[in-house]
């Protein structure tokens, strides 16, 4: 029997960086054997913009409406990707404190007050010192503990470029990665395998199987699978690859969240 297919990380038109109609995402999912997905639009804590909270409220309302409409055919959940939590505790407290949804992702797209890794020109800014800062701020995010899972660990590597990556010793970040994992595990929280890298030139998930195995060996149990779709046709993308990598890392299940509680799916 094939496992229940649930994509825990997707973006819709309520994200500033996506233009994806929610209903189109639902129709695509049903047509492609996807059993459910969670809409986890961006909410950034490094700036205080009232319109982003209005966007999240509108997203929640549409998800609730479509969840009822598609009940029995698709499990549609409402979540949020609350990023850069270490920038402003007051914003985190307000947004997290009033969050009523299924799933809360914590993530980090920038470090050291620099722009998002995706827009930095690394011919003018040094990559590795910023990567080091990223790991420290990721640990802070784990310690802040306003999340169900910490998303796409090693995200900056997507923007390093193949040549720079080949010359880097990523194992020097193993100790701090362990500290991040231990913090999450102690708090009963998880990580995700973000499979977006598999469909991009980077070619690997965030994080790789090696680090998923390390999370497992340290006692981690909660791992969600996320496509990080910003287009309908990426909902559920590379899901089977994610399952295979988790199995190889020692897991006999993956998780998704409903009403902030993990559900375990045998794989
Ligand atoms: Zn993200
Ligand atoms: Zn995302």
Properties at a glance:
single chain, about 270 residues, alpha/beta, TIM Barrel, 7-stranded parallel beta sheet, two-stranded antiparallel sheet, 8 helices, about 35% helix, globular, binds zinc ion
Number-wise, the strands total 9
Q: Compute the gyration radius: what is it?
A: 17 Å
CATH superfamily: Metal-dependent hydrolases
Task: Please describe the biggest sheet, giving its number of strands, its sense, and whether it closes into a barrel.
Answer: 7 strands, parallel
Helix- and strand-based class?
A: alpha/beta
How do the strands of the widest beta sheet line up side by side?
Answer: 1-2-3-4-5-6-7
Shape: globular
Helices and strands, in order, run as: EHEHEHEHEHHEHEHEE
What's the architecture, going by CATH?
A: Alpha-Beta Barrel
Distance between the termini: 10 Å
Keywords: Amino-acid biosynthesis, Histidine biosynthesis, Hydrolase
Catalytic activity: L-histidinol phosphate + H2O = L-histidinol + phosphate
Organism: Neobittarella massiliensis
InterPro entries: Histidinol_P_phosphatase_HisJ, PHP_dom, Pol/histidinol_Pase-like
Provide a compact summary of the structure.
With 267 residues, the protein is of the alpha/beta class. The protein is built from eight helices and nine strands. Helix 4 (127-144) packs parallel to helix 6.
Could you please describe the fold and organization of this structure?
This protein is of the alpha/beta class. The chain has a single domain, classed as TIM Barrel (Alpha-Beta Barrel), CATH 3.20.20.140. The protein is 35% helix and 19% strand. The strands form two sheets. Strands 1-2-3-4-5-6-7 form a seven-stranded parallel sheet. A two-stranded antiparallel sheet has the order 8-9. α1 links the parallel β1 and β2. α4 runs parallel beside α6. It is globular. 44% of the residues are buried. The model has no long low-confidence stretch (mean pLDDT 96). The structure holds zinc ion (2 copies). The site of one zinc ion (ZN) has 4 residues, from loops.
């Amino acid at each position: 029997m094939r496992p229940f297919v649930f994509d825990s990380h997707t973006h819709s038109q309520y994200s500033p960086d996506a233009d994806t109609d929610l209903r189109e995402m639902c129709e695509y999912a049903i047509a492609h054997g996807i059993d459910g997905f969670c809409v986890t639009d961006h909410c950034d804590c490094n700036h205080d913009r009232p319109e982003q909270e209005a966007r999240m409220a509108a997203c929640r309302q549409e998800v609730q409406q479509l969840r009822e409409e598609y009940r029995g055919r698709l499990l549609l959940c409402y979540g949020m990707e609350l990023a850069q939590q270490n920038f402003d505790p007051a914003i985190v407290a307000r947004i997290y404190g009033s969050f009523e949804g299924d799933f809360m992702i914590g993530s980090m797209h920038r470090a050291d007050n620099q722009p998002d890794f995706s827009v930095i020109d690394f011919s003018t800014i040094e990559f590795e010192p910023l990567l080091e800062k990223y790991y420290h701020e990721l640990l802070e995010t784990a310690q802040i503990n306003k999340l169900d899972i910490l998303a796409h660990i090693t995200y900056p590597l997507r923007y390093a470029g193949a040549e720079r990556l080949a010359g880097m010793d990523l194992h020097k970040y193993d100790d701090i990665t362990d500290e991040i994992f231990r913090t999450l595990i102690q708090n009963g929280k998880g990580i995700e395998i973000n499979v977006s890298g598999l469909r991009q030139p980077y070619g690997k998930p965030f994080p790789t199987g090696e680090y998923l195995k390390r999370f497992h060996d340290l006692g981690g149990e909660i791992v969600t699978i996320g496509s990080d779709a910003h287009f309908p046709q990426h909902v559920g993308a590379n899901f089977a690859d994610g399952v295979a990598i988790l199995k190889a890392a020692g897991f006999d299940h993956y998780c998704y969240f409903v009403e902030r509680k993990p559900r375990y799916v045998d794989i």
